[in-house]
Design goal:
Beta-Lactamase, elongated, Cro/C1-type_HTH, Lambda_DNA-bd_dom_sf, Helix-turn-helix transcriptional regulator, MLTR_LBD
Protein backbone atom coordinates (compact mmCIF):
# COMPACT_ATOMS: atom_id res chain seq x y z
CA UNK A 1 0.00 0.00 0.00
CA UNK A 2 1.31 3.47 -0.89
CA UNK A 3 1.57 5.93 2.00
CA UNK A 4 0.58 9.47 1.10
CA UNK A 5 2.84 12.17 2.51
CA UNK A 6 0.74 14.95 4.04
CA UNK A 7 1.51 18.30 5.52
CA UNK A 8 2.55 17.71 9.15
CA UNK A 9 0.03 18.46 11.81
CA UNK A 10 -3.38 17.91 10.24
CA UNK A 11 -3.84 14.44 11.71
CA UNK A 12 -2.73 15.55 15.16
CA UNK A 13 -5.00 18.59 14.99
CA UNK A 14 -8.00 16.50 14.01
CA UNK A 15 -7.31 14.00 16.76
CA UNK A 16 -7.00 16.85 19.27
CA UNK A 17 -10.38 18.29 18.25
CA UNK A 18 -12.02 14.88 18.28
CA UNK A 19 -10.71 14.18 21.78
CA UNK A 20 -11.78 17.64 22.96
CA UNK A 21 -15.31 16.80 21.84
CA UNK A 22 -15.05 13.30 23.36
CA UNK A 23 -16.13 11.62 20.14
CA UNK A 24 -14.79 8.24 19.01
CA UNK A 25 -13.40 7.68 15.52
CA UNK A 26 -16.39 5.48 14.73
CA UNK A 27 -18.93 8.07 15.90
CA UNK A 28 -17.20 10.84 13.93
CA UNK A 29 -17.08 8.64 10.85
CA UNK A 30 -20.79 7.90 11.06
CA UNK A 31 -21.61 11.57 11.45
CA UNK A 32 -19.38 12.62 8.54
CA UNK A 33 -20.34 9.78 6.16
CA UNK A 34 -16.85 8.30 6.25
CA UNK A 35 -15.27 5.22 7.86
CA UNK A 36 -13.44 4.75 11.13
CA UNK A 37 -10.54 3.26 9.13
CA UNK A 38 -10.23 6.40 7.01
CA UNK A 39 -10.45 8.67 10.07
CA UNK A 40 -7.69 6.60 11.68
CA UNK A 41 -5.52 6.88 8.58
CA UNK A 42 -6.02 10.67 8.49
CA UNK A 43 -5.13 11.05 12.16
CA UNK A 44 -1.97 8.95 11.83
CA UNK A 45 -0.86 10.71 8.64
CA UNK A 46 -1.33 7.70 6.36
CA UNK A 47 -4.04 9.41 4.33
CA UNK A 48 -4.60 12.97 3.15
CA UNK A 49 -8.18 14.12 3.71
CA UNK A 50 -9.93 15.88 0.88
CA UNK A 51 -10.82 19.51 1.45
CA UNK A 52 -14.51 18.57 1.46
CA UNK A 53 -14.02 15.86 4.09
CA UNK A 54 -11.86 18.12 6.23
CA UNK A 55 -14.53 20.81 6.30
CA UNK A 56 -17.21 18.21 6.98
CA UNK A 57 -15.22 16.82 9.91
CA UNK A 58 -14.63 20.33 11.23
CA UNK A 59 -18.35 21.00 11.04
CA UNK A 60 -19.25 17.88 13.02
CA UNK A 61 -16.52 18.65 15.56
CA UNK A 62 -17.79 22.23 15.90
CA UNK A 63 -14.32 23.61 15.19
CA UNK A 64 -14.19 27.43 15.40
CA UNK A 65 -13.82 29.24 12.07
CA UNK A 66 -10.27 30.43 12.82
CA UNK A 67 -9.20 26.87 13.59
CA UNK A 68 -10.83 25.55 10.42
CA UNK A 69 -8.36 27.67 8.47
CA UNK A 70 -5.54 26.15 10.52
CA UNK A 71 -6.76 22.64 9.64
CA UNK A 72 -6.92 23.48 5.95
CA UNK A 73 -3.44 24.98 5.93
CA UNK A 74 -2.04 21.98 7.81
CA UNK A 75 -3.47 19.70 5.12
CA UNK A 76 -1.94 21.79 2.33
CA UNK A 77 -5.07 23.69 1.30
CA UNK A 78 -5.70 27.40 1.10
CA UNK A 79 -7.64 28.94 4.01
CA UNK A 80 -11.36 29.11 3.27
CA UNK A 81 -12.40 31.94 5.61
CA UNK A 82 -11.25 35.54 5.37
CA UNK A 83 -10.36 37.63 8.42
CA UNK A 84 -11.67 41.06 7.54
CA UNK A 85 -11.08 44.13 9.67
CA UNK A 86 -14.25 45.74 10.99
CA UNK A 87 -12.95 48.98 9.49
CA UNK A 88 -13.07 47.52 5.98
CA UNK A 89 -15.68 48.98 3.57
CA UNK A 90 -17.27 45.53 3.16
CA UNK A 91 -18.08 45.57 6.89
CA UNK A 92 -19.95 48.89 6.78
CA UNK A 93 -23.41 47.28 6.89
CA UNK A 94 -22.40 45.09 9.82
CA UNK A 95 -20.93 48.05 11.71
CA UNK A 96 -24.04 50.13 11.10
CA UNK A 97 -26.28 47.32 12.29
CA UNK A 98 -24.31 46.81 15.49
CA UNK A 99 -24.23 50.55 16.21
CA UNK A 100 -27.98 50.74 15.70
CA UNK A 101 -28.51 47.79 18.05
CA UNK A 102 -26.33 49.34 20.77
CA UNK A 103 -28.11 52.70 20.54
CA UNK A 104 -31.52 51.05 20.55
CA UNK A 105 -30.67 49.20 23.77
CA UNK A 106 -30.03 52.43 25.68
CA UNK A 107 -30.43 53.38 28.47
CA UNK A 108 -29.41 49.80 29.31
CA UNK A 109 -25.69 48.93 28.87
CA UNK A 110 -24.50 46.96 25.82
CA UNK A 111 -21.17 46.34 24.09
CA UNK A 112 -19.48 44.33 21.34
CA UNK A 113 -16.33 42.31 22.05
CA UNK A 114 -14.00 40.10 20.03
CA UNK A 115 -12.57 36.69 20.90
CA UNK A 116 -10.09 38.24 23.36
CA UNK A 117 -12.78 40.33 25.09
CA UNK A 118 -11.45 43.54 23.57
CA UNK A 119 -14.29 46.06 23.42
CA UNK A 120 -14.98 47.07 19.81
CA UNK A 121 -18.07 49.19 20.44
CA UNK A 122 -20.14 50.27 23.44
CA UNK A 123 -23.15 52.41 24.15
CA UNK A 124 -23.71 55.24 26.62
CA UNK A 125 -24.91 52.81 29.29
CA UNK A 126 -21.53 51.07 29.36
CA UNK A 127 -19.64 54.37 29.38
CA UNK A 128 -21.61 55.49 32.42
CA UNK A 129 -20.76 52.28 34.32
CA UNK A 130 -17.00 52.58 33.68
CA UNK A 131 -16.89 56.16 34.91
CA UNK A 132 -14.19 56.26 37.59
CA UNK A 133 -12.20 53.30 36.27
CA UNK A 134 -8.43 53.93 36.28
CA UNK A 135 -7.39 55.77 33.08
CA UNK A 136 -4.79 53.14 32.12
CA UNK A 137 -7.58 50.55 31.83
CA UNK A 138 -9.48 52.81 29.43
CA UNK A 139 -6.61 53.11 26.97
CA UNK A 140 -7.17 51.24 23.67
CA UNK A 141 -7.60 48.41 23.28
CA UNK A 142 -10.13 48.35 26.11
CA UNK A 143 -10.58 44.85 27.47
CA UNK A 144 -13.83 43.86 29.15
CA UNK A 145 -12.28 41.29 31.49
CA UNK A 146 -9.54 43.65 32.66
CA UNK A 147 -11.97 46.52 33.23
CA UNK A 148 -14.32 44.27 35.21
CA UNK A 149 -11.85 42.31 37.36
CA UNK A 150 -8.88 44.66 37.84
CA UNK A 151 -8.59 46.13 41.37
CA UNK A 152 -8.57 49.59 39.76
CA UNK A 153 -11.50 48.74 37.54
CA UNK A 154 -15.08 47.82 38.40
CA UNK A 155 -14.09 45.09 40.89
CA UNK A 156 -14.19 47.23 44.06
CA UNK A 157 -17.74 48.32 43.19
CA UNK A 158 -19.15 44.86 42.41
CA UNK A 159 -21.04 43.79 45.53
CA UNK A 160 -21.04 40.07 44.64
CA UNK A 161 -17.50 40.05 43.27
CA UNK A 162 -16.61 36.50 44.31
CA UNK A 163 -19.61 35.08 42.48
CA UNK A 164 -19.30 37.33 39.42
CA UNK A 165 -15.54 36.73 39.16
CA UNK A 166 -16.10 32.97 39.30
CA UNK A 167 -18.76 33.27 36.61
CA UNK A 168 -16.40 35.17 34.29
CA UNK A 169 -13.46 32.83 34.90
CA UNK A 170 -15.71 29.81 34.29
CA UNK A 171 -16.83 31.40 31.04
CA UNK A 172 -13.22 31.80 29.91
CA UNK A 173 -12.38 28.24 31.00
CA UNK A 174 -15.23 26.88 28.88
CA UNK A 175 -13.89 28.79 25.88
CA UNK A 176 -10.38 27.52 26.45
CA UNK A 177 -11.67 23.96 26.64
CA UNK A 178 -13.24 24.33 23.20
CA UNK A 179 -10.55 26.23 21.31
CA UNK A 180 -6.80 26.75 21.14
CA UNK A 181 -5.99 30.42 21.84
CA UNK A 182 -2.69 31.56 23.32
CA UNK A 183 -3.91 35.20 23.71
CA UNK A 184 -7.04 34.05 25.55
CA UNK A 185 -4.97 31.77 27.80
CA UNK A 186 -2.63 34.66 28.61
CA UNK A 187 -5.59 36.91 29.42
CA UNK A 188 -7.11 34.24 31.67
CA UNK A 189 -3.85 33.81 33.58
CA UNK A 190 -3.59 37.58 33.98
CA UNK A 191 -7.08 38.30 35.28
CA UNK A 192 -7.24 35.14 37.42
CA UNK A 193 -4.14 36.45 39.20
CA UNK A 194 -5.60 39.83 40.11
CA UNK A 195 -5.85 40.29 43.88
CA UNK A 196 -9.35 40.76 45.18
CA UNK A 197 -10.06 44.07 46.92
CA UNK A 198 -9.61 43.74 50.67
CA UNK A 199 -6.88 43.29 53.23
CA UNK A 200 -3.97 41.20 52.01
CA UNK A 201 -5.73 40.31 48.77
CA UNK A 202 -8.19 38.02 50.59
CA UNK A 203 -11.60 37.59 49.07
CA UNK A 204 -14.14 40.00 50.46
CA UNK A 205 -17.40 38.62 51.71
CA UNK A 206 -20.00 38.77 48.98
CA UNK A 207 -23.51 39.83 49.84
CA UNK A 208 -26.19 37.32 48.99
CA UNK A 209 -28.10 39.45 46.54
CA UNK A 210 -29.80 37.31 43.90
CA UNK A 211 -32.64 37.62 41.48
CA UNK A 212 -34.73 34.43 41.33
CA UNK A 213 -33.80 33.31 37.80
CA UNK A 214 -30.12 34.05 37.12
CA UNK A 215 -26.89 35.32 38.69
CA UNK A 216 -26.82 39.11 38.43
CA UNK A 217 -23.91 41.51 38.52
CA UNK A 218 -24.65 43.72 41.53
CA UNK A 219 -22.67 46.94 41.29
CA UNK A 220 -22.49 50.25 43.10
CA UNK A 221 -22.90 53.26 40.83
CA UNK A 222 -23.34 56.91 41.69
CA UNK A 223 -24.44 56.14 45.24
CA UNK A 224 -26.90 53.43 44.19
CA UNK A 225 -26.83 49.64 43.94
CA UNK A 226 -27.73 48.40 40.46
CA UNK A 227 -28.38 44.82 39.43
CA UNK A 228 -27.94 43.43 35.89
CA UNK A 229 -28.43 40.14 34.08
CA UNK A 230 -25.95 39.60 31.25
CA UNK A 231 -26.90 38.02 27.91
CA UNK A 232 -24.53 37.24 25.02
CA UNK A 233 -25.45 36.92 21.34
CA UNK A 234 -23.22 35.70 18.50
CA UNK A 235 -23.68 35.56 14.73
CA UNK A 236 -25.22 32.48 13.17
CA UNK A 237 -23.19 30.57 10.51
CA UNK A 238 -20.41 33.17 10.14
CA UNK A 239 -18.19 32.93 7.04
CA UNK A 240 -15.50 35.32 8.28
CA UNK A 241 -13.08 34.81 11.17
CA UNK A 242 -13.67 38.30 12.56
CA UNK A 243 -17.45 37.94 12.53
CA UNK A 244 -17.28 34.45 14.05
CA UNK A 245 -15.57 35.85 17.14
CA UNK A 246 -17.85 38.85 17.72
CA UNK A 247 -20.11 38.79 20.77
CA UNK A 248 -22.83 41.30 21.61
CA UNK A 249 -23.30 41.47 25.38
CA UNK A 250 -26.31 43.23 26.82
CA UNK A 251 -27.10 43.97 30.45
CA UNK A 252 -30.77 43.72 31.36
CA UNK A 253 -31.97 45.29 34.63
CA UNK A 254 -32.55 42.51 37.15
CA UNK A 255 -34.96 44.51 39.27
CA UNK A 256 -37.46 47.34 38.93
CA UNK A 257 -35.31 49.81 40.86
CA UNK A 258 -32.40 49.43 38.42
CA UNK A 259 -34.68 49.82 35.41
CA UNK A 260 -36.34 52.92 36.89
CA UNK A 261 -32.99 54.56 37.68
CA UNK A 262 -31.61 53.96 34.19
CA UNK A 263 -34.72 55.42 32.59
CA UNK A 264 -34.48 58.53 34.81
CA UNK A 265 -30.73 59.03 34.34
CA UNK A 266 -29.90 61.93 32.01
CA UNK A 267 -28.63 60.80 28.59
Amino acid sequence: MTTVVVAPGVGALLREWRERRRISQLELALRADSSARHISFVETGRSRPSEELLLRLADHLDVPVRERNALLISAGYAPRYAETSLDAPTMSTLRAGMDQLLRAYEPFPALVTDGRYDILAANAGIMALVDGVAPHLLQPPLNGMRITLHPEGLAPRIRNLREWRRHLLDQMERQLALMRSAPLRALYDEVAGYPLPGTGGDEVAAESEHCPFALPMVIEHDGRVLSFISTIATFNTPMDVTVSELAIETFLPADAATAAYLHRRPA
